[in-house]
C-alpha cells in the first residue's frame, strides 16, 4: 500500500508535452474537452481524468487516440472548477482534498454530458473510460448508470468502493502488477466477487512489471521494456470499446 506521506502514486510517470487536436466547450455548468472524428459517428466515449484534472495533456492524448479510432471523445471537468491536484501540493493534505472530489458523486455531471452527446453530437452508443480516480468513477458508473453501454477502468482505486460487484454493463479492468496503491490481493478479491455476482461480461487483466498510471502516464521512450505493455493496454482498451460499442 502507499504510505501515509504518499497516499497516491499518481506522480509516477510524465506530463506529456501535447497540445490536443480537440476544443474546449461549455456544457451547461461543466467545461469539457471534445474531439470528433472526421467521419460522422453515433459512438462516443466519456473520458474521466485522474487527480490531475481534465486539462492534463496525457488524458487529452488518450481522448484524441479514441477519436482516431472513430469515436467522439469528451473529457469533462469532473472537479467542476475545483483545482486539480498539483505535484507541489502537500501529500499530507491529500485526504482532505479528496473528500471534496468524490469519484462516486459524479452522476449529475454524467447526466449533463450524456444529454450533450445525444443532442449536440448525435451519439447513441456511449461508453466510458477512466484513469485512477477516473477508473474508480467508471466502476461506480458501471454499477449504477443504465444509459452507458460499456466501461474500461484503468487502475481504478478499488478501496474507494464498498463491496458491490453486480455490474450493469460489460466492463474491462486494467491493473498494474506493481501498483503501490492497488495491491494484487485487492484485485484477486475483486475477481472473486465478480465471479460470484456479475451477470454481464467482464475482464480483469494485470499487466506484468507495470506500475500505476502506465497506460497514460508513462513515456514509451523512457523504458523500452514498458512499451509493449503500454501499447497492449491501449489496444486492449480500444478493442473492448469496439466490441461493445
TrEMBL record:
Query: Would I find RNA-binding among this entry's keywords?
Result: no
Q: Which domain of life is it from?
A: Eukaryota
User: What SUPFAM superfamilies does the entry give?
Assistant: alpha/beta-Hydrolases
- Print the keywords alphabetically: Cytoplasm
Task: Please give the Pfam families that the UniProt record associates with this protein.
Answer: DLH
> In the UniProt record, which is one GO cellular component term?
cytosol
Q: Name one GO molecular function term.
A: hydrolase activity
Span of domain Dienelactone hydrolase: 30-245
Q: What is its main location?
A: cytoplasm
Q: Where in the cell is it found?
A: Cytoplasm, Cytosol
Enumerate the InterPro entries for this protein. Answer: AB_hydrolase_fold, CMBL, Dienelactn_hydro
Keyword set includes Hydrolase: no
Query: Which family does the record claim for this protein?
Result: Belongs to the dienelactone hydrolase family.
Protein name per UniProt: Carboxymethylenebutenolidase homolog
Record organism = Corythaixoides concolor
